[in-house]
Design goal:
The chain is of the alpha/beta class. A hairpin with a 5-residue loop joins strand 4 and strand 5. The structure holds adenosine-5'-diphosphate and magnesium ion (MG). Adenosine-5'-diphosphate binds next to helix 1.
């Protein structure tokens, strides 16, 4: 799928933007503070209902304005066009999906998968497991439609078990929740495992393009000790869970172990290498989505050139182009992205965007 048009009103410094992006590569060049990241935020907002920057969402509204809006006509992979309109003021977020007048946020997320590669990517290595679970689950969510309902069932049952633990309920009550937890957890675990296998299958074709990156190993850990099944882990941990007042083991503790040349990636790889490794993970995820009859995602790449030398930069650009997805790339300087690659190019200056190629 790709965005045919994009209209932005009052998002940060972007007062009134009307764009017709191309279905392939769209490059946005501009100085610091010109509005490049804000443009990517607009697309991301359409696909998730929130920004990827962590400040309160109301900060997205341009100073002096009361609300922001983003609207796009989207061409779906089956050739059907649909539109997404979104508006937010200080109080609330409203959105409309033309293909589903009753749409809730989850339908919005499903309608338009958007993959973001930005300079905070290394958090996937540096920070705790929740970042990696988010990465994993975003992919699983889009290719395995039964994942989300199972995850919801699991989360609900887990909450119930935790409150039963806190209220010192009998073993019998807790075991009753265990049954619900186990059924949902088995599904969540199986879909995640299958997904990681698929990811490992496509990943080498991306890694091989970059020198010195091939030795990466991604292992899924389900959230309980490897030498037991989940039912055993729940039983074995009951007394400890009672003391803690919550359930220690389960899919809510799953993680991905990413090792590079046999050690944790963040301990060995330079920032540039980390960026390439994570880009490969993200691109493999995008390729899986595009290839599995799911929707072709839109790629947002903020500051493509940051931390990358000419060779990595050029290869990354080639790999992105070959994927054939619609992408929005930002860059500080004209010369950092070769004009030889087919693209639509725009200049961004003080919140204004003009097409140059
Ligand atoms: N709510 C807002 N209203 C107006 N301007 C804002 C708001 N929030 C941020 N800005 C400004 O928008 C400009 C563009 O930011 P950004 O998109 O991050 O630029 P770039 O990515 O091109 O460096 C910055 O100068 C920032 O100060
Ligand atoms: Mg920026």
């Amino acid at each position: 799928m790709y965005l045919n048009s994009l209209r932005i009103r009052d998002l940060r410094c972007l007062q009134a933007i009307d764009l017709e992006p191309g279905p392939g590569l769209n490059v946005f060049v501009g100085d610091n503070g010109s509005g490049k990241t804000s443009l990517l935020e607009a697309v991301y907002l359409l696909s998730r209902g929130r920004s990827f920057r962590s400040a309160p969402q109301s900060r997205l509204i341009r100073n002096e304005a009361e609300s922001l809006s983003v609207f796009s006509r989207v061409q779906d992979d089956d050739g059907q066009p649909f539109s997404i309109g979104l508006e937010r003021d200080n109080e609330e977020l409203r959105f409309k999906l033309s293909s589903d007048p009753e749409a809730r946020l989850i339908h919005l997320v499903r309608a338009m998968p958007v993959q973001l590669l930005d300079p905070t990517l290394h958090a996937l290595f540096d920070e705790g497991p929740s970042q990696r679970r988010r990465f994993l689950d975003w992919g699983v969510f889009h290719v395995e439609h039964a994942f989300y309902p199972a995850w919801r069932r699991y989360s609900r049952a887990l909450q119930q078990r935790n409150s039963a633990l806190r209220s010192h309920a009998s073993d019998q009550v807790i075991h009753a929740w265990d049954r619900d937890i186990l059924t949902a957890a088995t599904h969540v675990d199986a879909t995640r495992k299958r997904y990681v296998d698929e990811l490992n299958r496509v990943l080498p074709s991306f890694l091989q393009r970059f020198p010195n990156t091939a030795e990466i190993d991604i292992r899924y850990t389900p959230g309980w000790p490897r030498d037991m099944d989940y039912a055993q882990a729940l039983n074995a941990g009951l007394q400890r869970d009672r003391q803690l007042g919550y359930t220690m083991h389960g899919p809510h503790r799953a993680d991905l172990r990413i090792r590079w040349h046999g050690v944790k990636a963040e301990q060995r790889a330079s920032r540039g290498e980390q960026k390439v490794l994570i880009c490969c993970l993200m691109l493999a995820q995008a390729a899986l989505l595009a290839g599995q009859g799911a929707k072709k995602p839109v790629l947002l790449v903020d500051d493509l050139a940051a931390e990358l030398g000419p060779q990595y930069r050029q290869t990354l650009l080639e790999v992105i182009t070959e994927l054939g997805l619609q992408s929005f790339l930002t860059c500080l300087e004209e010369t950092l992205i070769s004009e030889a690659v087919e693209q639509k190019r725009f200049h961004v200056e003080q919140g204004r965007i003009a097409r140059v190629i």
